[in-house]
Amino acid sequence: xxxxxxxxxEPNQHGFLPLAARLRPQRLEDYIGQxxxxxxxxxxxxxxxxxxxxxxxxxxPPGSGKTSLAKLIAAQSDAFFYELSAVLAGVKEIRAxxxxxxxRRQQYQQKTVLFVDEVHRFNKAQQDAFLPHIENGxxxxxxxxxxxxxxxxxxxxxxxxKVYVLQPLNESELAQILDRALxxxxxxxxxxxxxxDDAKRMMLMASDGDAxxxxxxxxxxxxxxxxxxxxxxxxxxxxxVVLQSQRRFDKxxxxxxxxxxxxxxxxxxxxxxxxxxxxxxxxxxGCDPLYLARRIVRTASEDIGNADPRALEVxxxxxxxxxxxxxxEGHLALAQAVTYLASAAKSNAVYLAVKQAxxxxxxxxxxxxxxxxxNAPTSLMQALDYGADYRYPHDEKDGFAAxxxxxxxxxxxxxxxxxxxxxxxIKIKQKLExxxxxxxxxxxxxxxxx
Length: 450
Hints:
The chain is of the alpha/beta class. The chain is built from 22 helices and seven strands. The strands form two sheets. The protein has a five-stranded parallel sheet, with helices on both faces. A two-stranded parallel sheet has the order 6-7. Helix 13 crosses helix 14 (235-245) and helix 17 runs antiparallel to helix 18. The relative contact order is 0.07.
């Protein structure tokens, strides 16, 4: 059998192991942060204590401890830890990992935690490959992602794995990590590295909740200090390191979530200047333009909807333009979309309708489709009254079957869509109010006949 940590850190080609890897905690009690999921009586803590592992997804920003926590949980439960990176692995590597897990289970009765870092980068087929092996217990699936699992992961995988949200580390937690590094790392101790209080505060602020960024900054600042100030890290050393890397970020950068939120809220707040600013900030920082295109399309439906249906068309056209032209030519189309959306009339009526309908479905369960609305392609279905009494609107006056209901009888009085008094929804609201009046008159007439 291999060691428990099959994917333990290894030095690079020069024999050097980064500080962040050297200081990875080896015991669960040494893990810092995420008390909201590791505290007493939390479900994850109870599962770890009882060695009853379940498949899970860790969703959190870079440097929040996703990989470290996954390794520690596996170690605590005497499970074999097999690590894959979705950036580098493919179907071949997935099959090899599964095959090893099956052998380990059959021959040694040992559980395997299969950890997939950046799991959102796997496509649907690759994600689906894990499903049967999660079901039959060949693996306990651990995934880590910086992206919202609701958007990036398959529903089938999400239904089999509990999602735990990891938070950026706070300043106190980062300070503990920094102090531990200065106290426990043999290399820093040997070189006599120390840090001034004002430089420490600057380093903690610059790390923005990212422990890996903190330790990388410490390591680089220590190198600078050893050359220029006898190993005492001062503000000049921290500034030298931070200014070299503060501007750019990729899709997993620490500023990603804040900036995409700012762009979305600027559109919702009808501020085209702010919307295009945040769009350009993210494009300049290296964000995937197609991700931005998807978010813009969502915004068109969530915050504008039928108040200006053209917004969705503009957003989709911008997405297509970005796909066809690539960068940077496609960026203009994205900018056109966000400025249009920000300037458009706003309505969240569609968003609220979906939210309310989902809530009613959750409460009422799977209500049967009324017989009159069912299709009847066979004689048996016709004999069972499928489609009976259905009124064809095109045969009715003004193309509307007044008094007819299309919801299940148990919820026939529900109203989900409530247009606002802005944009095209003013006209839609007037139309629906007119149809409601026709329905009321027809139903009143039917009651009189009864």
